[in-house]
Each structure stands twice: as C-alpha cells, then as structure tokens.
Write a structure and sequence with these properties.
Strand order of the largest sheet: 5-7-8-10-9
Number of strands: 10
Distance between the termini: 29 Å
Structural class: alpha+beta
Low-confidence stretches: none
Largest sheet: 5 strands, mixed
Number of helices: 9
Strand content: 5-15%
Helix content: 55-70%
Length: about 400
C-alpha cells in the first residue's frame, strides 16, 4: 500500500475536497432555492386565504410586532414568516382588521428531508469518486515510483539501470527519458574513465619494472635511498590503479571460506605494521574471502593512521568490524558522496592519492559486504564493515 503522503493519495484527497466543495455549493443552492420557493408558495396561500375572507381570517388580536410594523395604509396587507419556533413555523398575512396564518411545518419537514437526501447522495458520490480517483492515480504513481527506483539504482552505481519509459507525450515519460539519458551518459563517461585508468596503469607497469630494477643496481647512498623510496611509492600507486581497474571491470570474484574474525583482525593489523588496539567481542565467525577482507581492513587502518590521529581502534563484534581514529574525522564530501579516487579531503597535498578507501569500497562490493563512513560525536573518523 502506498504511503499516505504519496502522490496517489494526494490526488485522491484533492478530488475528495473538490467533490465536497461542489456538493456543498450545489446543496446550498438547492436548499436556498427550495426554501425561497416554499416561502413564496406560503405567502400566496396566506394572501389568498386572507383576501377570500376564509374562516381562518378573523380578528387576530395582538399581532406580532414584526408583522404589525409592516402593515401600511388601510386596505393594504403584509406578510411575515414567523420562525420564532424553529419546529413550528407560520406564514402570516394581515391587514389592519383581519389576519390569517398558514402552517409551514410540512414545508419545513420536506426541506429538511431534502437536505438529508442531498447529504446522503453527496457522501455516496464521494465514496464512489474517491476510490476511483485513487485507482486512476495509481498508474502515473506507479510510473513515478519506477523512475525513482531507477534513479536510486543509478545513484548506487548501477549505471545499467533504465526506466524503459516507452512511448508517450506526458511529463512522466519526459522525466523517465531524461533519467535514462542521464544514466547512459554517466555510464559512457565512467567507461571512458575506467579505460583511461586501466590503460595508464598498464602503460606505466613496464617502465616501472625497469625503474625498480635500475634502482636496485644503484650504489648505496642517500640519493639512492630517496630514489628507491619514490620508486616504491610509484609502484604502489600503479598496483592500486591496476586493482581499481579490475574492480571497475567486474573481473574479481570472491572465494569464501569460514574466517574467525577476531584472530583474523589481529593478524591483519600486525601485517600492516601499524599500531592499533583490537577489541573482540565473543568469538565471531564469518564466511567471506579472507584475502579481500584483509585488503579492506589494511586500507582502513592505513587510512586512519595517515589522515587521522592515534589511538586507532579496531572493534570486532558479530560480523561487524569497526575502525576508528581520533583525528579530525572524514570530510563532508566523503560522507555525502563516498570515497573518490585522487580525492583525500586533506588540506595538505601529497598525503595519499585517495585510492585506499576506493579500493576498500570496491573489495567490499566483491565480497558482498557493506562499508559505511561516519564521524564519531566525540571526534574521529569511523569506518564500519558489515559482512553478510
């Protein structure tokens, strides 16, 4: 069932309000017209009885003040609708010497019955029109939901998603076509970027191997150490780019085995060679790819040391691994858009290439894990890996 704030129910509510206003206006017009006709007929009957000197026309005694004030010159008559008692109304006709009053109770009862019938008929029409309006609004509402689902899939990275808008000239078809066009354009741009990354990484690999070999042949010295350090940084960068290109191409697959997460997290931090406090709750076990999980956790710990501040804490609970530092936290752009390659969010240049978190997110997709980024209220960045 669609939520009450959906377009479907808004349309149904609008139709209900419009129908109610029309029914109220028609009911008031009919009520007013019927009342005026009843009063006119009542006046005619009272005047006819008065002028015919019927038995009901006699000395009335004291007349109601409102009627007496209406009587003019001798020989003239006046009429007055007496509704002082709303359940027993009368129509008066009087001259200076005679008066007659006609019972209007029957007309009043007929008018009230007519009002009830109008109300019941209006409620019946509303009971029919509102469901029909909700049903009629379901088709465009369903099309809009399909467009929204497609847009969310595109935002989540599924650039193959399409709305299949079909033919039509209404606004929903235009929106759907625009979403499809946007997804196709993003898909093309991403493919170009992925091919460029893969080509650059492959082209750099061959000369990089030559640089590594040449650096090893250099005589020992301070300059040689500097060259080897920079060559090592370049080698890691090229390997990261190659890994990203494989992840982008969907060429990676997980090899799942049972992994004792507590011992695994401790070993991973030890292999990373960086200080981190590992806390394990219970004896959690998960079925996942240990090599890829090691890559994810190592990158998160390295990122915490590189962009955060000690102490770095790794907490394992059930199938969730949390890495927290005590630095300035993740930048707002990363929290809003996720990790982006070559964007570190750091004010200074040269501290990483923004590839570590990108690789971690890519490897998490391969093993079916979810990785989230947040900032702790007490300070520091928090990365959470939830294994399925």
């Amino acid at each position: 069932m669609a939520p009450w704030r959906s377009l479907r129910w808004q349309i149904a509510a609008l139709v209900a309000v419009a129908s109610g206003v029309v029914a109220l206006a028609v009911g008031l017009l009919v009520h007013r017209s019927t009342l005026e006709r009843s009063l006119s007929l009542g006046r005619d009957r009272a005047v006819t009885a008065l002028l015919a000197d019927s038995p009901g026309a006699a000395d009335p005694g004291p007349l109601p003040a409102a009627l007496a004030a209406r009587i003019g010159a001798p020989g003239t008559y006046a009429t007055w609708y007496d509704d002082r008692d709303p359940d027993v109304p009368w129509m008066w006709a009087a001259t200076g010497a005679r008066a007659v009053k006609i019972d209007m109770g029957g007309d009043l009862r007929n008018l009230r019955a007519l009002d009830r019938h109008i109300v019941l008929a209006s409620l019946g029409v509303l009971g029919l029109v509102v469901p029909l309006a909700a049903l009629a609004a379901e088709l465009p509402n369903r099309r809009l939901r399909r467009v929204a689902r497609t847009a969310r899939r595109v935002a989540d990275g599924d650039l193959e998603a399409r709305t299949s808008a079909g033919r039509g000239g209404d606004e929903i078809t235009g929106i759907a076509a625009a979403v499809d066009t946007m997804a196709a354009a993003l898909h093309d741009r991403l493919r170009v970027e992925q091919r460029f990354t893969a080509d650059v990484a492959h082209e750099l690999r061959t000369p990089l191997m030559g640089l590594v070999t040449s650096a090893e042949l250099l005589p020992e010295g301070e300059a040689t150490d500097l060259v080897r350090d920079r060559v090592g940084v370049l080698r890691v960068l090229v390997e990261n780019l190659l890994e990203i290109s494989r992840l982008d191409a969907g060429a990676e697959s997980a090899e799942r085995v049972e992994v004792p997460l507590g011992r695994f997290a401790g070993d991973c931090v030890h292999r990373a060679g960086l200080a981190a406090e590992v806390t394990v709750h219970g004896d959690p076990v998960a079925v996942t790819d240990p090599r890829r999980l090691d890559r994810i956790l190592a990158n998160l710990v390295v990122n915490a040391h590189r962009h955060g501040s000690a102490p770095v804490e790794v907490q394992v609970e059930d199938t969730t691994i949390t890495v927290r530092d005590h630095g300035p936290g993740f930048p707002e752009s990363l929290l809003a858009e996720g990790p982006q390659r070559f964007r570190t969010g750091a004010s200074e240049r040269g501290r990483g290439h923004g590839l570590g978190l990108t690789i971690a997110a890519g490897q998490a997709r391969v093993i079916g894990a979810r990785i989230g980024f947040a900032n702790d209220p007490d300070g520091g960045a928090v990365a959470t890996v939830r294994l399925s």
